[in-house]
Amino acid sequence: MSGDLAIWTDFGGVITAPVDVTFHDFSTRTGVPTHALKEAMRLVGEAHGTDSMGVLDIPLLDEAAWAHEVEEELARTFGLAADLRDFGDRWFEGRRADQAWLRRLAGLRSRGVFVGMLSNLPPSWERHRRYMADDSCFDDIVCSYAVGHRKPEPEIFEIAAERCGHDPAACVLVDDLEKNCAGAVAAGWQAVHFRDAEQAATEIEELIRARTAASASTG
C-alpha cells in the first residue's frame, strides 16, 4: 500500500463546503444573524457541559429538542423569535459535496491507500451525509454518535486506529478545525489542516513519500 498510511477525512467543512459558508447561507434563509445563532448554540452547549455541537454529536439531545433550546436561547439572549424546526434539512439545503476532494480520496483508494471518514456527526444527519458521500466512498466510517466519543477526544482516535488496523503514527486526520488536528497529534497521529482539496492532497502526498522513504531505509 502507498506509504502504508490510513487517511481519515472529516465530513463537515472538508467533504462539504466550509462551515462558515453554510452558516451564512442558513442565516440568510432563516433571518437569524450568524453571530446570534453561533452564540445561542454555544450557550446551549455550555448548559449541557459541552461545546456548541457536542449536544448533538453524541447525542445528549435529539435534534428537535436541541433546536427548541436554541430557539429559547435566541429569544432570551437576543430577543429573536426563530423557527428552527427541521434544522438538519434546512442546514443541508443547497449544500454540496466537494467533488474535487472526493476525487482525490478515490484516487488514493485506487492506489491501495486506506481512506476512512472520521466525523463528529449527529445521527439525524446521516441521511444527508450519505446523499453527499455514500458509504462506498470509504473503507470505514467512524462517527461520534455511533461510538460515544467525538473529536478531539483521544478515545475516538484510538477507536479509528484500531478499526483500520494501523498504528496511530500511520494514521492521518484531514480536518478543517485546528483543535481536531491538535487532538489527533496528541493521540499520536499525523494531521493535515484542510483548507482546500489541492493543498490537502499535496500534504498527503508528502506524508506518503516520507513514509515510503522511511520504510525503504529500514528495509
UniProtKB/TrEMBL annotation:
<dbReference type="InterPro" id="IPR036412">
    <property type="entry name" value="HAD-like_sf"/>
</dbReference>
<dbReference type="Pfam" id="PF00702">
    <property type="entry name" value="Hydrolase"/>
</dbReference>
<dbReference type="InterPro" id="IPR006439">
    <property type="entry name" value="HAD-SF_hydro_IA"/>
</dbReference>
<protein>
    <recommendedName>
        <fullName>Haloacid dehalogenase</fullName>
    </recommendedName>
</protein>
<dbReference type="InterPro" id="IPR023214">
    <property type="entry name" value="HAD_sf"/>
</dbReference>
